[in-house]
Amino acid sequence: MTSFGWKRKVTDKVASEKPAAFDDNVEESEGASDNLFLVLAKKRKLCVLEDCISKSTRLVKEGVTLAEAERYWEAIKRWDEAIQLTPGNSEIYEMKAQALMELSEVFPATQSAEKAVSLDPLWWVAHQTLARAQLGLGEVELAKRTIIRAIHLNPSERELWEDDLRWICSLCDQKKTMKRERKDENG
Questions:
Q1: What is the helix (H) or strand (E) element at residue 174, kind and residue range?
Q2: First CA to last CA across the chain, in angstroms?
Q3: What are the phi and psi torsion angles at 7 (to 5°)?
């Protein structure tokens, strides 16, 4: 019984001949330049214009410029793109949280601030932003604990003492007096 198979004898003439389109040494002719695929196939060297870190830095700067112009949604889009490139950068999450608070998007702002704190737990600015976002949610006691953590990380920052802590303590006092008044009315 004989087996069937494709066998072809390659002669020296066929093996040595190569079409001109595949020859590296031949310059492009007018017909080859019309065929874009052949041109690109020859010049298939990949040229990266930006690496991830420099592109992320550029996107962050664009986002800051947009946020300063009060174009917060556009800034958030730029920062989201930057987060995709450098997900470990806590500063981007913190800036995004501030922009979301400006837009009264309190829950996403809190999530973004929590992510900034989890990425860099020793950065007092992230704790300050988280405390402000927690205030937006109405979590006064939680915000007080968070701002105290920020003060422990940077006790020399007067803004934490004079603005944030004083304001949060006054809100805690108001909340306690409201609870007492409700209790007196009901009981």
A1: helix 166-186
A2: 105
A3: -125, 135
| CA 9 – CA 7 distance, rounded (Å) | 7
Q: What is the C-alpha separation between 77 and 63, in angstroms, rounded?
A: 8
Has this prediction a pTM greater than 0.90? no
Is the Cα dihedral 64, 113, 120, 89 positive or negative? negative
CB 155 within 8 A of CB 146: no
Predicted pLDDT of residue 161:
83
Angstrom distance (rounded) from CA 28 to CA 90 = 51
Please report, as a single letter, which amino acid is at residue 60.
V
Q: What is the Cα–Cα distance from 131 to 98, expressed in whole angstroms?
A: 11
Q: Angle formed by the axes of helices 72-85 and 52-68, to 10°?
A: 170
Residue pLDDT, tens place only, 112-126 = 999 999 999 999 999
184 by DSSP, 3-state: which? helix
Residue 184 pLDDT exceeds 60:
yes
Which residue blocks in 70-165 are alpha helix, DSSP H? 72-85, 90-102, 106-119, 124-137, 140-153, 158-159
Rounded distance between C-alpha atoms, residue 155 and residue 40, angstroms:
60
